[in-house]
Amino acid sequence: MQISRVKVEGTQPTNCYLVACARTRDAVVIDPGADAPKILEQCRDLKIRHIVCTHGHRNHAGCKDEVKAALGGETAMSLLDAKAYLRSADRYLMEGDCLPFGDFVMEVLFTPGHSPGSLCLKVGNHLFTGDTLRAGDIGPTDLPDIDLPRQLMAVLSKLLSLPENTVIYPGHGATTTVGQERRQNVAVQMLRRAG
Question: Which burial class, exposed, middle or buried, applies to 193 when counting CB atoms under 10 A from its CB (0-12, 13-18, 19+)?
């Protein structure tokens, strides 16, 4: 499996990811928020099967339709975020859904908190977290459509129960691991104390 990060510049710098099967060149685009030409350039030798938004905010979903028009593939996100942010997709995802590509399957985890329908995506020991979990932090939680802190802690506990060598690819910033976030994530520690 090959994973590439494309740093796109929209309302704020965001990590878009290309996850590809090396044998078949089937691939998934995660969080195409902006800079469609930059994303398309990185997809030249790939067959795009899915274009997935971890949540409906513009900086994670802003150019999904442009990418689909150029490359094909099925757009996907949660129905809750599609309704909340007036977006549409070919497929609406729920906990446990699977997205096959080449020799791999990407599993969908429902992780509401940052937005009503935030999703994380897991393939092997790789976890794409959008704005749910970042290196040393979590995404903003001052939105009117979330339930704090109990809901967030339940979501974070689900993610942090994964094996500690699970690599986390967040929507913003550097990669990290589950083990590192268990030990060092200040926001997680604060939520534990609040709960």
Answer: exposed
Domain residue spans of the chain: 2-194
Question: Half-sphere exposure of 22 toward its Cβ, with a 13 Å CA cutoff?
Answer: 4
Is pTM beyond 0.90 here?
yes
pLDDT tens per residue across all 195 residues of the chain = 999 999 999 778 999 999 999 999 999 999 999 999 999 999 999 999 999 999 999 999 999 999 999 999 999 999 999 999 999 999 999 999 999 999 999 999 999 988 889 999 999 999 999 999 999 999 887 556 555 667 788 899 999 999 999 999 999 999 999 999 999 998 888 877 765
Which of 95, 121, 156 minimizes the C-alpha distance to 18? 121
103 CB contacts (<8 Å, ≥6 apart)?
A: 21, 23, 24
Fold observed for domain 2-194: Metallo-beta-lactamase; Chain A (3.60.15)
* Rounded Cα distance, 190 and 195, in Å: 9
CA distances from 183 to 50, 93, 130, 138 (A): 34, 31, 20, 14
Residue with tokens 């490359």: 71
Q: Which of 181, 180, 173 is nearest to 155 (CA)?
A: 181
